[in-house]
Amino acid sequence: MARIIGLVGNAERGQNERLVRGMLLASCFGSAVDIVGAVRTATAGLGTFGEWTCETSACTMDGNISVVVDGLVFNGEELGFSADEPVRGIVCLYRERGFWMMLERLNGDFALALYDHDARTLSVARDRVGCKPLYYATAPGVFAFAARLRALATVQNCKECYIASGVVIEGRAQLLEFQLGP
Questions:
Q1: Which of 9, 49, 67, 124 has its CA 20 to 30 A from that of 180?
Q2: Strands of 121-126's sheet, edge to edge?
């Protein structure tokens, strides 16, 4: 099991580490997309890539795309990828169809974060039913998300946290998208 957390924007020094520690305190498993300038993705207990090395079924960095997934994609074989490696299939679907069309094709119990380095876009989504928890918070110049609410308590100057609803909107999964500046 993996849990996803992430932070993007102009966070103060040490904010990323506090967010990760908050997640690890909330659960013995942790995954992170840490996006401040460049992207690093971490999976606690499994290594990381960016500063270290990691390729797991829960996270990958494939060329210009970084993906971390918490959960399962039930129809992976139908979509042409192994159930053991959903992130590789997600990257392929994203490249072929874009984020919205990729989400429409995925059937499962998941929360995911996808960072497109070229477009400088972070997209965060959860399954249509909303089985996997996904919270988000904003502060001046910062967008943070986590599978555990406790992790977001560490975000400086954050007044409120929100849960991404599992309500189906026109048959699509809930989507939060954050566009980074040039």
A1: 49
A2: 59-62, 65-73, 108-116, 121-126, 175-179
